[in-house]
Structure formats: C-alpha cells, structure tokens
C-alpha cells in the first residue's frame, strides 16, 4: 500500500507505485509538493519522464534509499487528516491498520 502526503497535509492511499493517482500533475512532481511512502517505510520520489514531440511529460515513482518505518511514522505525524476512501474513513483507522501490520511483521505472522 502506498501513502501520499499532499501539500495540504492530507494523506491518501493507493495500491501500487506504478499506478499513482491520475490527478497529480507533472508540475507538482517537479516542485516536490507531495511525499510518497509505502507501508514498509520505503520513500518514493517522482521522476519526470520527458514526452515526445507530440506528447506531454509524464512521471513515475521511483524508490529512494532503503525502507525505514521512521519514514512512514514521520509522514503520518505530519498528516492532519485522510481523504476518506473505500478502505479508510479516518486517519486513526489508517494508523491502527499500519500499527497492527507492523506488530504482525515483528511477530512473524
């Protein structure tokens, strides 16, 4: 699961770094307006892919550094709310889900 922290300090979730939300514009990626992290603490950065003569620039998310749960914790500490979706209605629901996942990983379950 991927988590994005928007510039308004609202988080959203999406499933796959190869399919980020389609509302994000390349100018926002160039300006580094958003932070991306997966549930393992792997940070992702947006990388601009130049378009051709008749096509616009696009972007992709690429991992940066190594996974560290502190990256995820920092992102969540900076969030003030979540964009409610199919999976989570509140920021607390997301945090609880991630905490249970961390505990299960540590216990080997």
State the share of residues found in helices, binned by percent.
25-40%
The description of the largest β-sheet is: 6 strands, mixed
Specify Rg, calculated over alpha carbons.
15 Å
How many individual domains? Answer: 1
Q: Class by helix and strand content?
A: alpha+beta
Would you report the number of β strands?
6
Proportion of beta-strand residues: 25-35%
Order of helices and strands: EEHEEEHEH
Q: Kindly, what is the distance between the CA atoms of the first and last residues, rounded to a whole number of angstroms?
A: 18 Å
Overall outline: globular
pLDDT averaged over residues: 87
Strand order of the largest sheet: 5-4-3-1-2-6
- The helix tally amounts to 3
State the low-pLDDT regions, or none: 103-109
Name the features.
27% strand; 29% helix; six-stranded mixed beta sheet; 3 helices; 109 residues; globular; disordered C terminus; alpha+beta
Task: Briefly say what this structure is.
The chain has 109 residues and is of the alpha+beta class.
């Amino acid at each position: 699961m991927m988590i994005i922290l928007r510039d308004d300090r609202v988080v959203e979730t999406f499933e796959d770094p190869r399919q980020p939300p389609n509302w994000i514009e390349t100018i926002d990626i160039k300006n580094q307006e958003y932070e991306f992290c997966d549930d393992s603490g792997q940070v992702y950065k947006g990388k601009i892919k130049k378009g051709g003569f008749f096509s616009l620039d696009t972007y992709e998310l690429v991992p940066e550094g190594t996974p560290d749960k502190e990256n995820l914790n920092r992102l969540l500490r900076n969030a003030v709310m979540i964009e409610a979706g199919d999976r989570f209605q509140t920021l607390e629901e997301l945090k609880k889900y991630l905490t249970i996942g961390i505990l299960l990983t540590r216990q080997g379950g």
